[in-house]
Amino acid sequence: NPDLKSEFSWIFDLTYKGEIQSVFQYEISLFRNNIDNAIYQITKGTQEDGTPIYQNQNVGKSYSTGYEIAIGIKPVKEITVGANYSYIYRENKENKEVKFTDVPNHKSVIYGNFSLPSRNTTYLHVDMEINSKRYYTSDGKTLPGYMLTNAKIFSKVWKGISMEAGVKNLFDKNYCLAINYPKEGRIYFTSITYDF
């Protein structure tokens, strides 16, 4: 789009974090973004397979606002669990029917680290990521939300050498971030790292 202009924004962020006796940590953030000449991915049509055709366009004044909450708990040295949740709302002030694409309104992550009592350099990490539905066209078509679970075991084995092995998308969920482009299913991985 040769007529595309640069967008300009004012970003406001207020964050507070603290802890209680090194056992409970928390962080709360509030944010707002006021945008002039906002650039949207506007849906102009579809290809034969149904994939949308996009063009970046300026759509005037927009804003996004939301918050994020994160907590972490470490009841004993060997266990750390936590979670975070974020909410974002975005709107075009001049045409509320035009939707922002590719970003879910709700997202959360829950995680846990569990190490061996006698060897805290060996641990199991498990996390779960939850995403709500998202728009994939500017006229309001949506992709469904999804939940992914990942797990890995990590260990420092000897003088700078560490190993890890795990699985991403443990339950082999079908999901996609763009229409007609499915993401990977269950993936196993392993690695060896040497730190000089």
Automatic annotation (TrEMBL):
One of its GO terms (cellular component) is cell outer membrane. GO terms for molecular function: siderophore uptake transmembrane transporter activity. It is found in: Cell outer membrane. Residues 1-170 form the TonB-dependent receptor-like beta-barrel domain. Keywords: Cell outer membrane, Membrane, Receptor, Signal, TonB box, Transmembrane, Transport. InterPro entries: Beta-barrel_TonB, Beta-barrel_TonB_sf, TonB-dep_rcpt-like. It is a multi-pass membrane protein. One of its GO terms (biological process) is siderophore transmembrane transport. Pfam families: TonB_dep_Rec_b-barrel (PF00593). This is Colicin I receptor. It comes from termite gut metagenome. The lineage of its organism: unclassified sequences, metagenomes, organismal metagenomes.
